[in-house]
Amino acid sequence: MSEAKESRVQPRRSWLWWGGGGALLLVLLAALVLWLTSASFENLVRKELAAKLATATGGRVEIGTFLWHPFNLDAEARGIVIHGKEAADEAPYARIGHIRVEISILGFFTPKIRLRSLDIEQPQIHLIVYPDGSTNQPKPRKPASKGKSALDTFFDLKAGLLTVEDGLFDFENRAAKFDFQNRLEQLNFKANDVSVQLAYVAAAGANPESFHVELGARDFMLSRGAAHPLARPVEGYMQATLDLTRDAAYLRSLRLTARSKGIEDRTLEVSGMLADFTHPRWNATVKGDLDMRLLEPITGYPNTPEGLAHLDLTGEGHGGIFRSDGTVHADGAAYVGTGVDAHGITLDAKVHADAEQLRITSVVARMHTGGNISGDVLLQNWLGPLPGADVMRAAPPEQKKPRGFLHRKLKVQPIKESALERKNRDHHVNGRVDANFKDVKLDTILDMVSTPPFQRLGFASLVNGPTVAQWSNGDVNTLSVNAKLNLNAPSQPPAGEVPANGTVEATY
Q1: What is the predicted pLDDT for the residue at 489?
Q2: DSSP code of residue 494
């Protein structure tokens, strides 16, 4: 073969090799694309994703369906269920109806994945706190590796938009320790149609990068097991706006609205700031109307089953030190407790609270039948020891070792003390209440503190004078009451009632 012909054959062979290799590569790419979009690949990813979630959460995970769109860089899954430590016949720890995620791949040689959007629909969280303090929340099977915090990792992800819609949050505290009466009663909180919208905001000038969060929940219900007979579940809705940085949280607005049939909505607004997560310091402002029925399900305090409190409070603190000051005005308030049943009270007071004392001063309580009671309330050591604070107490008596031939068999068993007993032992409230009666009808007082037939004695008399009650160490046996009350007949006594005058002095 001549050199000219051979030179013409070489390029043809090269093109054949390149063409064949390119065709093969295209076939392989097509096969890869077909496999990536096939049901078998999606099923493989679904199982792998379930396994990864099970390892990360520690629970048993189920995923109904999984769809992957490689050309759009998005994926969606339905029917995600995470089972925790709850019983088999109870609702699972978490359930998500539908989730959709979109990502972006930035860079070629050192690609980075950025979360463009995450949409979560119909999430349901069912959290249970058991009497021993444990929860049904599963624990990760592998401990988290040391390094960046979860918050830093989240910021590095720079999520463009995160939305949560039509959610349900069900919280069951079966050991409600935050309880005025120190009961272990179940606390239930349910919220339907929960929505969350989160957007990443890049740093600009002196403003650091942040996430802007908007949260809402409709049809929330708060109730407590074995509640006071006069207390009912409180229903309402909430809205919140929050800005979160790597080291601070700014609560721009939190609106809690309680509602009842035939009654105007009552809204309480809270705003504040929590700075320096490593050494937290905070401030807060509370303004608006508080439905006093909330005190029973939240704190276990059942003695105010009705009324509306108008609050204007500010507070600040750091570590275990805090203070709060403001004013309270209550309309249609009630107090129903041991030996007292009072309704229709209008009250004004100034409030100061810190870690050591609670002072309620300039109190004026106006009775719906006329007259008022004014005074002050002082409670010292009202919160008990703060977590981590030193508590002074007497040293335990020295344990004498038994002698004789039994000394090797006998062992002194330490007395186990429950958390509730320890709290009661360390928590000794000292209190003082000063009250001054002014033109309060005798029948009004008897209606509040007596039972039939002693509520209406037929005497027309107005009560005036001071009373002082004080106690120490939270012991009712130390309670002392001193009263010097004058009974004065009104200028125009009601028909059928006998005017009565006199003086009552009592020491208890």
Answers
A1: 87
A2: P
Contact 378, 431 (CB under 8 A): yes
Separation between Cα atoms, residue 96 and residue 81, nearest integer Å: 7
d(CA 439, CA 370): 7
Q: In whole angstroms, what is the distance from residue 125 CA to residue 189 CA?
A: 11
Of 269-283, 311-325, 363-377, 389-403, where does mean pLDDT reach its minimum?
A: 389-403
Look-up: residue for tokens 């009974």? Answer: 487
Residue carrying structure tokens 């008022």: 372
Spell out where 355-471 has E strands.
357-366, 372-380, 430-441, 459-460, 462-471
**Greater pLDDT, 186 or 58:** 58
Compute the distance between CA of residue 17 and CA of residue 183 in angstroms, rounded to an integer. Answer: 83
Contact 352, 358 (CB under 8 A): yes
Q: pLDDT tens digit string along 70-118?
A: 777 888 999 999 999 999 899 999 999 999 988 776 655 555 667 788 8
Angstrom distance (rounded) from CA 65 to CA 295: 44
Confidence of residue 182 (pLDDT cuts 50, 70, 90): low
What b/e readout covers 58-93, taking b as 16+ CB neighbours within 10 angstroms? bbebbbeebebeeeeebbbbbebbbbbbbeeeebbb
Could you give the CA distance from residue 508 to residue 506 in angstroms, rounded to a whole number?
Answer: 7
Letter for the amino acid at 286? V
CB 508 within 8 A of CB 490: no
Q: What is the pLDDT of residues 16-68, one digit of tens each?
A: 566 666 666 776 766 666 666 677 777 877 888 888 888 878 899 999 988 88
Identify any residues that bridge with 199 across adjacent strands, giving them in sequence order: 161, 212
CB 285, CB 252: distance < 8 Å? no
| Contact yes or no for 254/260 (Cβ under 8 A) | no
Closest by CA position to 290, among listed 325, 261, 317, 255? 255
In single-letter form, the type of residue at position 114 comes to R
324: exposed, middle or buried (C-beta count within 10 Å: 0-12, 13-18, 19+)? middle
Residues 204, 323: contact at Cβ < 8 Å? no
Phi/psi at 61 (5° precision): -115, 140
**Do 289 and 265 form a contact (C-beta atoms < 8 A)?**
no
- Whose CA is closest to 311, among 335, 347, 283, 339? 347
Lowest mean pLDDT among 4-18, 202-216, 303-317: 4-18
Please give the structure tokens belonging to residue 10.
Answer: 């070489």
Q: Which residues pair with 295 in a beta bridge?
A: none
Please count the helices (runs of H) and the strands (runs of E) in the chain: 6, 22
* pTM of the complete model beyond 0.70: no
CA–CA dist 59, 96 (Å, integer): 14
